């Protein structure tokens, strides 16, 4: 995703209480941030927010945290949340590899990883959000029995990720190489998913449980 730097993005985010400016201070206290005891779901790499906004609108009894490293992306998400008047989402601008610094044990009930960078070069595989190095970090803050939902257009990343999850103790609950023909009824489209589907690319999808 190519982004034009916008100086106005960061100030706009900082003015809104949906943006968490000091997420490390929220570690172990995210239910206090939302002022309720509803489950907390996490999207890693939220893009322009079509997915998280649709999800939050359908399930208002769940709290959502959307993380991305680009303010220019997050400000698009923020505008969608405000337009739809969705109070159950918080935004965090940070590197995903640092997520274990902002969540305490058992704080997260579900993780969504949608169309992350496949990092095709073998020397870059450790940067994949499904690589065991990342999965072990997630295990420090997801609850036992919680799920990770993973979608991608990249078949090599998908195949490697199936192995990554198995290696780190996740149980595979569901797998399909053609999501839109699978009959899976809970799917919510992302921006990339719409684009890739329009190009005739089949979407790969799997659900894993942390045991």
TrEMBL record:
Reactions mediated catalytically: guanosine(46) in tRNA + S-adenosyl-L-methionine = N(7)-methylguanosine(46) in tRNA + S-adenosyl-L-homocysteine
Signal peptide start and end residues: none
PROSITE patterns xrefs: SAM_MT_TRMB
Pfam families for the chain: Methyltransf_4
Residue numbers binding S-adenosyl-L-methionine: 43, 68, 117
Binding positions for substrate per the UniProt entry: 153, 190-193
Pathway per the UniProt entry: tRNA modification; N(7)-methylguanine-tRNA biosynthesis
Gene3D superfamilies: Vaccinia Virus protein VP39 (3.40.50.150)
Keywords: Methyltransferase, S-adenosyl-L-methionine, Transferase, tRNA processing
NCBIfam families: PRK00121.2-2, tRNA (guanosine(46)-N7)-methyltransferase TrmB
Function (record text): Catalyzes the formation of N(7)-methylguanine at position 46 (m7G46) in tRNA.
Family: Belongs to the class I-like SAM-binding methyltransferase superfamily. TrmB family.
Name of the featured protein: tRNA (guanine-N(7)-)-methyltransferase
């Amino acid at each position: 995703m190519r982004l034009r730097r916008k100086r106005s993005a960061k100030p706009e985010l900082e003015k809104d209480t949906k943006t968490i400016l000091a997420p490390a201070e929220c570690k172990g206290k995210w239910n206090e941030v939302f002022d309720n005891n509803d489950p907390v779901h996490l999207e890693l790499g939220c893009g322009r927010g079509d997915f998280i906004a649709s999800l939050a609108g359908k399930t208002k009894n769940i709290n959502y945290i959307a993380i991305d490293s680009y303010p220019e992306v997050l400000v698009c998400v923020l505008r969608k949340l405000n337009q739809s008047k969705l109070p159950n989402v918080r935004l965090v601008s940070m590197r995903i590899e640092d997520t274990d610094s902002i969540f305490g044990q058992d704080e997260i009930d579900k993780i969504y990883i949608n169309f992350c960078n496949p990092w095709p070069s073998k020397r870059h595989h450790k940067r994949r959000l499904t690589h065991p190095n990342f999965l072990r970090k997630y295990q420090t803050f997801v609850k036992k029995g919680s799920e990770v939902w993973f979608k991608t257009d990249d078949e090599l990343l998908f195949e490697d990720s199936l192995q990554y999850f198995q290696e780190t103790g996740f149980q595979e609950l569901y797998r399909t190489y053609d999501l839109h023909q699978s009959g899976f009824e809970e799917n919510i489209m992302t921006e990339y998913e719409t684009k890739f589907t329009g190009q005739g690319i089949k979407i790969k999808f799997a659900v894993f449980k942390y045991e």
